[in-house]
Amino acid sequence: MVNASSNDMFVIEGGFVSIAESNVSITNSSGEVSPGSSPGLLDIAGDYVQEATGTLVIEIEGTAFDIDTESYEYDRLSVEDDISLDGTLEIENNDSVYSLKQDDEFSIITWDGTISGEFETIITPSLSIANAEWYLGDLYENGTIKVIGSTLS
Q: Taking a C-beta distance cutoff of 8 angstroms, is the pair 53, 37 a contact?
């Protein structure tokens, strides 16, 4: 847990950080942030700011996500206040652990305040499903990404 006084902010300036809870706002200026314990939940009691050289890494090992039992098969960033996005979102999937399927849906970001900005770069794993693609159209509305049937003919 990142723990500091309520007026503090934890700033990540390089390196890889994997944490589950922070009682202060986090600014990712140039590091890689991975929620929880591979996979897991990062709960921030404050704001999350990701700058142009920061990366949010989301691991997917299944579709189950149960906060009550703390059973997570994919990562989620949960922000109690505002979220400001830039930089890179990198989605990782190890096919030997979980093979993505059409209609899989993942709520990877939640926030209670406002959202501003967008990721400059989004890296998604390749899909081995015929006629399937990633749908990211709800990412900035409700934090959800999906595997859908291809809209291409």
A: no
